[in-house]
Design a protein that fits this description.
Blueprint lengths: L13 E3 L8 E4 L5 E9 L6 H17 L4 E11 L5 H17 L3 E9 L4 E10 L15 E4 L5 H9 L5 H12 L3 H9 L4 E4 L4 H13 L2 E4 L10 H6 L5 H10 L10 H11 L8 E5 L4 H12 L4 E7 L6 E3 L4
Parallel strand pairs: 4-5, 9-12
Antiparallel strand pairs: 1-2, 2-3, 3-6, 4-6, 7-10, 7-11, 8-10, 9-11
Helix pairs in contact: 1-2, 3-4, 5-10, 6-8
Length: 326
């Protein structure tokens, strides 16, 4: 690739690397095209192999959608115990291929290994005009903050694994995880979003803080506006939480402000904000004058509303506060 100096940390065509915890690396190919490169894989959260494949693929594709890019092609990454047989592998790969096709991209190969713990995901190549790339950085005070999927996949998954809830209660989370973030990508492009990211393993608190730290701003969250899966709040209050939630809560403690909230209420809210998501929604900072454009574009594409969960504010500490606790 001409013009790329891979030996220099200041390579002019490397538009984005590790600097701001963004969702993918970005390399300029020409004046009109930037390549968006990402890889993601996970262990099963569901019993059905095809559902697992689709969820893992949707999760990986979200990194490209979050940057306002279009997926072009993908490589499979599969680790599976050979004792499970070819049919399980076929179903996992079929679920992944279905999601990639729906994203308008192609599966063009991949790699598999024999492994006692199943894992599946994708290495995805996407494309975007260099001037239309959306990053973690760039949120402005006054921006409207939107979330495009409900929270609570970690809570419901943990409850399902121990039999606290059945498949019927878990199914809405499965359906959400399997849904592509294509509608969110279309909406953020239409509205000229200032910043965006997908909400995954670090929970809403972790991924929002990455955006705030990269943008040099803070956020005020409207707790009542947060979309939650049915039962997620009750599970948080009952301490039916994934193990990872507690480490994320420790990480988030310095930058999430308790304000006037009682200790129990704050702890339960933190467990929701720090719930690790799989294939979660897009978190998007939209110029306030374009909020209606974002809402209309998302509803047109997704058939439902995006949640307006708060706003970006001036805050040198890049903290997250609750509007009802200040």
């Amino acid at each position: 690739m001409s013009g790329v100096n891979f030996g220099s940390p200041f390579a002019p065509d490397l538009l984005l690397g590790f600097e701001t915890s963004d969702d993918a690396a970005v390399l300029r190919v020409s004046d009109e095209v930037a390549a968006v490169l990402t890889v993601d894989f996970l262990t099963p959260l569901v019993d059905d192999p095809r559902d697992f494949g689709r969820i893992a693929a949707a999760n990986a594709l979200s990194d490209v959608f979050a940057m306002g890019a279009d997926p072009v092609c993908a490589l499979n990454i599969l680790a599976l115990d050979c004792a499970l047989g070819n049919e399980v592998a076929r179903e996992v790969l079929a679920g992944g291929a279905e999601a990639v096709r729906e994203a308008g991209a192609l599966v063009v190969g991949g790699h598999s290994v024999d492994d006692p713990e199943p894992k599946y995901g994708l290495c995805v190549f996407g494309a975007v005009h260099p001037d239309r790339l959306v990053r973690n950085a760039g949120a402005h005070p006054g921006d409207a903050l939107y979330l495009t999927k409900p929270l609570g996949t970690g809570l419901l998954s943990a409850a399902y694994k121990i039999g606290e809830i059945g498949l019927e209660a878990f199914q809405p989370a499965i359906d959400s995880m399997a849904e592509l973030n294509r509608a969110g990508a279309a909406a953020l492009r239409a509205a000229g979003a200032h910043a965006a990211t997908d909400v995954t393993g670090f929970g809403l608190a972790g991924h929002l803080h990455e955006m705030l730290a990269a943008s040099g701003a803070g956020a005020v969250i409207d707790w009542e506006a947060l979309p939650l899966f049915d039962g997620a709040w009750d599970l948080s209050c009952a301490y039916c939480r994934p193990n990872r939630t507690f480490s994320i809560m420790d990480f988030a403690a310095p930058f999430v402000r308790q304000g006037a909230l009682p200790d129990d209420e704050f702890d339960n809210r933190m467990a929701v904000l720090c719930d690790p998501q799989t294939s979660g929604g897009l978190l998007v900072a939209v110029p306030p004058e374009n909020a209606a454009v974002f809402e209309a574009a998302f509803e047109r594409e997704a058939g439902r509303s995006a949640a307006l969960i708060g706003r970006i504010v001036e805050d040198a500490e890049c903290a997250i506060a609750f509007s009802d606790a200040q």
